[in-house]
């Protein structure tokens, strides 16, 4: 174990004296830290699995939701906004699912090329945590970067970190906004603020449901003349280019 620690320290650019290490090493502290880390990692995997189940059930129940409302109320005008909400949420989850799969596939390819172990596991975690806007992808990168540092070298860990950043910039800032812009029409600032607000109110579940809840608030604001202006503040302003004739 000491040789592995010396290898990691050498990758970081400093040397640990073996005698000093043996004198200061406390196995109970290390075992306690490992137990805490494994417990936290298990909680992350459990929450990720629950997130996946939640998404699957939402997609399943959303099929025919509008028809259920029509049968229950019989008046189309009364639940038009609910149908709009259901359609928006279904579109959000479907697009987010495809984007998450692309992210996970790119992460798997990156880690396989670099040589990081358990590339499939880190790819699956990237898929699941990508459903949490903004911070999910950052959390997914931490274990893979740390493993690259321990298993390979500091340079390889920086390559993995740079790869994660590139993937998130490409997918999160180029592909995903284009696909979601037409359907959801929410600005990036509103998405970030909704993540912080709903995460503060409801915790991790609020972070997962931040976009659907914000869509619900937006649609509710659009139904009243007095609050329509607030709903307009949440959307992306489309600039129309007017051709100028010379």
Can you characterise this structure?
The protein has 246 residues and is an all-alpha fold. It has one domain. 79% of the residues lie in helices and 0% in strands. It has 12 helices and no strands. It has helices at 2-12, 18-24, 27-62, 65-73, 80-114, 119-129, 135-151, 154-181, 188-202, 204-208, 210-222, 228-234. Helix 3 (27-62) crosses helix 5 (80-114), helix 5 runs antiparallel to helix 11 (210-222) and helix 11 (210-222) runs antiparallel to helix 12 (228-234). The longest helix has 36 residues, at 27-62.
Blueprint (SSEs and pairs):
Elements: H1 2-12, H2 18-24, H3 27-62, H4 65-73, H5 80-114, H6 119-129, H7 135-151, H8 154-181, H9 188-202, H10 204-208, H11 210-222, H12 228-234
Helix pairs in contact: 3-5, 5-6, 5-8, 5-11, 6-7, 7-8, 9-11, 11-12
Keywords:
single chain; 246 residues; mainly alpha; 12 helices; 79% helix; disordered C terminus
Summarize the structure.
By secondary structure, the chain is mainly alpha-helical. It is 79% helix and 0% strand. The chain has one domain (2-179).
Largest beta-sheet characterization: none
**Protein structure class:** mainly alpha
Computed CA radius of gyration, to the nearest angstrom = 23 Å
Residue windows where pLDDT falls under 50 for at least 5 positions: 237-246
In percent terms, what proportion of residues is strand? Answer: under 5%
Q: How many strand units?
A: 0
